[in-house]
Design goal:
The structure holds three protein chains of three kinds. Helix content of chain A is about 70%, strand content about 0%. Chain A contains 15 helices and no strands. Chain A has helices at about 5-10, 15-50, 55-60, 70-75, 80-115, 120-135, 140-150, 155-160, 165-175, 180-190, 195-205, 205-225, 225-230, 240-255, 270-295. Helix content of chain B is about 40%, strand content about 15%. Chain B contains 21 helices and 17 strands. Chain B has helices at about 25-40, 60-75, 85-95, 115-120, 130, 135-140, 140-145, 175-180, 180-185, 195-205, 255-270, 280-285, 305-310, 325-330, 345-355, 360-365, 400-405, 420-430, 450-465, 470-485, 490-505; strands spanning about 45-50, 75-80, 105, 150, 155, 155-160, 165-170, 230-235, 235-240, 245-250, 295-300, 315, 325, 335, 375, 380-385, 435. In chain B, the strands form six sheets. In chain B, strands 2-1-3-14-6 form a five-stranded mixed β-sheet. In chain B, strand 8 and strand 9 form a beta hairpin. The radius of gyration of chain B is 24 Å and the shape is globular. A two-stranded antiparallel sheet of chain C has the order 1-2. Chain C is about 60% helix and about 0% strand. By secondary structure, chain C is mostly helical. The chains are: A mainly alpha, B alpha+beta, C mainly alpha. Chains in contact: A-B, A-C, B-C. The interface between B and C is large, with 41 and 37 residues.
Chain lengths: ~300, ~500, ~325
């Protein structure tokens, strides 16, 4: 595997050049480190806030170390650990299965749309683009899902909505269009079928793009709380983000209700929000950190020969 | 699916929270339920939808209620709680797609009553109520019932509760004692008279380590009720003493200007942070003990005890605004019958039970006696958690939303400090001055573009005035100009026309 | 094709000698489908079919709902039983200065977000590409993606802790330096910049990824060849990287234009804490519509607002797509359709 840096080392022999190169690399790392810290520090402060006593947080503001350690926020959320674990399971299932299906459907469509001699390339691209802007709104959608497809309160309701996203299809199409046509033609000359060319030539070449769109799609599934809001009433099927939203909104609603005869007690609202952000982000971030390498590995090119 | 074994509760303690365990039903109640289900299966089953976290033990309560109903009205009930965060959206879609149900909680603030009537989602029950719910009908005055009337008919039953919400200041008891102004505070009869107290509190706060401000926001002073108006719709108000019911634009009145100047002078005196973004973060800061007063909030019987339990500090309060009975305050909580319901009559009979039968009502609110609660003192109507449960939340059934289901005056007390609050509240309701337009409801259909435009304009100009951040001398004329440009004049005229028509019909 | 500069492209370079791919048209005859190309096309149709069916069912079957915008919609009367009211539902979008200001803010802020966003994303993608073999890159990329998980509500708490007038971090620093503290939440002038910073922070991880994966697909031999010719870093970017990912940039810009009338509600509503004194620069169509309709909850007016936003985006995309088609090279299509 010929990497960029190795190439450079091979070519630039003079010391001054190497020094300049080093400075360049250091400044790139420095810039990226600063940017990454801008993203990390808030998350650390959220982590710290989620372990801070609610009152202390209001008094002292956000700090990197909890000013007064408390696990009340997590206790509120973990009143029912089984619910949280089940919600993780639902979310992981919909994210994995949904992403696989969506990526398959979208890459097939995008590949076809990227073929220069596909006769319906333009009308079909327009057909997809149009749906990015115009839709019938929630009521027809709800009637379709509940009265015709009858998927309410099933896992299908959580999977179906993101199978084809116009924006991603058109981005993927652009990647596919950038693939060297000669390679596909060569496969064709070798007698490969169109399906085979798609799976064995186009898909491997488009791995970085597919990984990107897979990540986007996975995030859609992971963060989705509006679909269950409309279609899921069975608590066993609550995905993580929705469960967190429900815990929050129930707590908040109870706090707002002011009716005589109620001891409402202290509810950590701000810290609970922070704890939820941690619960929702943590596992996904760790997953991404470890699997990112596998997603994009092997595509540092030169492979196009 | 709602309200079965697997739902979890997000309520805990008399407070709340997430979730007790899933399958918390005992085998015994399971057997009982199976038997009950066989007995009731031929009777019509009413579906009642309302907001709330699911209770683990709802099936026991549902069976008890069904048994009770089966004997009396020949129907059973299914309690379908939808989580708070999802209720408004889900009920909206259930309505819009004509899904079947019988009863639902409705209000001006969630599952909007008026748009439900407008969209014909709710059945007219004005004729059925006196026939099929005679005790319920008689429990409120005809004027009160008028408040639920929209365009000639009544579409929902009103929950008897605290109708009157007079505003006034709250102050931390320790601060009040320290500044020695208890007598002055309890004698307050106007907001103007509060200035010396505020000055004294400011001095105290400046010498205190924890407290940072006298108060966090001043804008609640500017609610129309504080200045003797019925806020019919947004800034359009009617003076409570004006029998001819002239519709006025609140921001054009002298009272508004007086209030704005008062608020401005308090902000300039440093009684609240000079930061418009603090609005809305008040509860957290109050609980954290950062400020000493809430200058204007709802003062009601039992309110001090509630505030203390919520914020952890003893407080004193004093109502300043005159108690006023308005359409808005009466219709704050309602239960409507769906227009797709095949059991309209039975649904109205359910409303009769839940509003006039304390046993039935409290079973819905507090659960089954002996299972979820026991008497602490029956003479005082005071209950405690059943068995060895530490709190009501541990009993498996504590929705804690009595006000949602029916007549709260029938509700059992759960805390000794609250005993006697209901007769007091009832007396307050009776003592209130009825607004000259009590029972009038504004139909916005003819001016909906103007209503939308005004709604979009009003906050930008009015919020700085309400919070004291803008000089009233220039900001009020700017506000009024913007309102006129957005078409408030047309709304006012339309409302006046409707009010006049309504008055003529009433006479 | 690689060495072509953007300038040459703008000149409308077309090479007649290049095999111009057949323009797609409407149903060709039977003879076509029997040909080699026709059979390929049939396979492709089959390949596209599952997604096309999904789009048809979920997006087109429900499209009749658009009609709601032109009626006084009452569900019980049905879509076509409801009274037709023409454009009355659209009036509130134009009736006041506030409405027009919201339109202006939406367009100007979005234009700023789009341009700065694309440049910043390209920059970050390029930085990541430069050190892509380093194991640190995994951490950079992961960390840059984190903000995407944080809801706007949580972000708003954060921004507030920085900008609060009395105990905010920034005013604390200003005071420490002996400067006057700034009342951020009552000074609209700062907010386009603040919101831009927040939106870049939240979005750059995702948007740079699109360009990074485009860069990773470039044949490294091109760089080697250019370097032997003595090209410096900037020249490499200018003559190789940028032209190679230009199609992605163009598509991204075109698709962003589609949403020029839509603002991120969470960003403008939560992060500003809906502070009304900031409206002169932060009130956008989505927040304006929200405020207008929170009172009436008028379904028809909501549908009208959405339709209006879509139509403007649609017209813009169609226009710029036409412009792109005028300047693109036949063998390297950039346009959407």
């Amino acid at each position: 595997m010929t990497t960029y840096t190795q190439t450079i080392r091979a070519q630039k022999r003079e010391d001054t050049d190497r020094l300049m190169n080093l400075i360049g690399r250091i400044s790139v790392h420095l810039t990226l480190t600063i940017l990454a810290l801008c993203c990390l520090v808030p998350l650390l402060m959220i982590l710290s806030a989620s372990f801070t006593d609610e009152i202390a947080l209001t008094r002292n503001g956000y700090t990197l170390i909890p000013s007064e350690f408390s696990t009340a926020a997590y206790e509120l959320i973990f009143r029912s650990p089984t619910a949280i674990l089940r919600a993780y399971a639902v979310t992981i299932f919909t994210t994995v299965v949904g992403t696989i299906i969506a990526l398959t459907l979208m890459s097939m469509l995008a590949y076809v749309l990227s073929r220069p001699d596909f006769v319906f390339r333009k009308p079909l691209s327009f057909f997809v683009f149009f749906t990015m802007l115009f839709n019938g709104g929630i009521v027809p959608y709800y009637i379709l899902m509940t009265q015709y497809l009858r998927v309410q309160d099933t896992v299908f309701a959580l999977l179906l909505p993101y199978f084809v996203v116009g924006f991603y299809v058109l981005i993927l199409r652009t990647y596919f269009a950038g693939l060297p046509e000669e390679l596909l033609d060569a496969a064709r000359v070798d007698g490969a079928s169109e399906w085979r060319i798609f799976w064995s030539v186009a898909i491997p070449l488009a791995k970085p793009a597919l990984a990107t769109i897979a990540l986007f799609t996975a995030l859609n599934y992971w963060n989705d709380w509006t679909t269950p809001l409309y279609f899921i009433r069975n608590a066993d099927l609550y995905p993580l983000q929705y469960l967190l939203y429900i815990i929050q909104s129930n707590a908040q609603a109870m706090q707002i209700q002011s009716s005589v005869g109620m001891n409402l007690g202290e509810v950590p609202t701000q810290t609970a929000r922070m704890a939820m952000a941690i619960l929702a982000t943590g596992p996904a971030a760790v997953f991404f950190l470890f699997f990112q390498r596998y997603l994009i590995r092997g595509v540092t090119l030169g492979a196009f020969k | 699916m709602t309200g079965r074994y697997s739902r979890r509760s997000f309520l805990k303690g008399i407070g709340l929270a997430a979730a007790a365990g899933g399958l918390s039903l005992s085998g015994l109640s399971g057997i009982k339920r199976a038997a009950a289900a066989r007995r009731f299966q031929d009777l019509p089953r009413l579906i009642y939808i309302f907001p709330g976290g699911a209770q683990p033990d709802v099936a026991t309560v549902q069976d008890a209620l069904s048994e009770y109903m089966a004997e009396r009205i020949g129907a059973t009930i299914e309690l379908r709680a939808i989580d708070w965060g999802a209720f408004n959206d889900q009920i909206g879609l259930i309505n819009a797609s004509a899904e079947n149900y019988d009863l639902a909680f409705t209000a001006p603030w969630t599952n909007n009553y008026y748009s439900n009537v407008d969209q014909e989602y709710l059945a007219p029950i004005g004729d059925l109520l006196p026939q099929l719910a005679p005790n319920y009908w008689a429990s409120m005055t005809p004027e009160t019932w008028e408040a639920a009337r929209v365009g000639g008919d009544i579409y929902a039953g009103i929950n008897q509760q605290t109708f009157v919400k007079p505003f006034g200041p709250y102050i931390r008891a320790d601060v009040l004692e320290a500044i020695g102004a208890a007598a002055d505070f309890n004698g307050l009869s106007s907001y103007d008279a509060m200035s010396p107290i505020l000055a004294a509190v400011k001095e105290y706060v400046d010498n205190d380590d924890t407290l940072t401000h006298v108060t966090y926001y001043l804008d609640t002073i500017m609610v129309a009720e504080n200045w003797g108006f019925d806020p019919v719709d947004g800034l359009l108000v009617v003076k409570s003493t004006d029998a001819s019911a002239q519709v006025q634009i609140f921001s054009e009145t002298d009272e508004f200007r007086q209030g704005a100047e008062l608020v401005r002078s308090w902000l300039e005196a440093g009684y609240a942070p000079n930061d418009p973004a603090t609005l809305g973060s008040g509860d957290e800061a109050w609980a954290a003990g950062l400020f000493a007063m809430r200058v204007s909030d709802i003062v009601k019987p039992g309110g001090n005890a509630e505030a203390e339990s919520r914020w952890g500090v003893p407080v004193a309060s004093k109502a300043i605004a005159e108690p006023l009975l308005t359409t808005g305050s009466v219709t704050a909580t309602l239960n409507g019958v769906s227009s797709v319901s095949a059991n309209r009559e039975l649904a109205v009979q359910f409303l009769e039970l839940v509003n006039s039968d304390p046993v039935f009502y409290n079973t819905l609110c507090k659960g089954v006696q002996g299972v979820h609660w026991d008497w602490a003192d029956e003479a005082q109507q005071l209950i405690k958690p059943a068995g060895d449960a530490a709190s009501f939340g541990d009993t498996g059934y504590a929705p804690n939303t009595d006000w949602m289901y029916g007549n709260v005056f029938n509700s059992y007390y759960t805390d000794p400090t609250q005993v006697g609050a209901w007769p007091e509240t009832a007396a307050l309701n009776r003592s209130a001055r009825p607004s000259p337009v009590l029972g009038f409801t504004f139909d916005r259909a003819a001016v909906d573009t103007e209503v939308a435009s005004v709604a979009a304009v009003v906050d930008e100009f009015a919020n700085p005035i309400r919070g004291g951040f803008a000089d009233p001398a220039t900001a009020i004329p700017a506000l009024n100009e913007a309102l006129q440009a957005a078409g408030i004049g047309a709304i006012r005229d339309e409302m006046q026309r409707q009010v006049d028509e309504w008055l003529a019909a009433k006479a | 094709m690689i060495s072509m500069t953007p300038i040459e492209m703008k000149a409308g370079y077309t090479d007649a000698a290049l095999a111009v791919p057949p323009r797609s048209g409407w149903l060709p005859g039977l003879k076509f489908w029997r040909s080699q190309r026709g059979k390929r096309n049939l396979t492709w149709l089959l390949m596209a079919l599952p997604a096309v069916i999904w789009v048809f069912v979920f997006k087109y079957l429900t499209l009749f709902g658009v009609w709601i915008a032109f009626t006084d919609f009452k569900v019980r009367r049905g879509l076509f039983g409801s009274e037709f009211v023409g454009l009355a539902n659209f009036e509130f979008l134009f009736s006041t200065d506030t409405a027009l200001r919201a339109t202006r803010n939406t367009i100007l802020l979005n234009l700023m977000f789009i341009t700065v966003g694309v440049i910043f994303a390209l920059f970050v993608a390029w930085l990541l590409y430069e050190v892509y073999s380093s194991y640190m890159t995994r951490f950079y990329q992961t960390l840059l993606l984190l903000p995407r998980f944080i809801s706007w509500v949580v972000v708003s708490y954060f921004v507030y802790s920085f900008l609060a007038t009395e105990n905010g971090l920034i005013n604390g620093i200003l005071r420490g330096m002996g400067l006057e503290p700034i009342s951020w939440y009552s000074t609209p002038g700062y907010w386009p910049g603040i919101l831009l910073a927040v939106s870049l922070w939240a979005g750059v991880g995702m948007s740079s990824l699109i360009y990074l994966s485009g860069m990773l697909a470039i044949d490294t031999q091109l760089y080697e060849a250019a370097r032997i010719d003595g090209a410096n870093k900037w020249q490499l970017f200018h003559y190789i990287t940028f032209p190679m990912i230009l199609p992605l940039v163009v598509i991204n810009l075109l698709l962003s234009l589609a949403y020029i009338m839509n603002a991120d509600f969470g960003l403008f509503f939560q992060v500003t804490r809906d502070t009304s004194m900031l409206y002169p620069t932060t009130d956008v169509l989505d927040t304006y519509i929200y405020r207008s309709l929170i009172v009436t909850r008028d379904v028809s007016m909501a549908a009208a607002a959405q339709f209006y936003q879509s139509v403007i985006g649609f017209v813009l995309v169609i226009f710029f797509n036409w412009v792109v088609r005028r300047i693109e090279r036949a063998d390297e299509p950039l346009a959407l359709f």
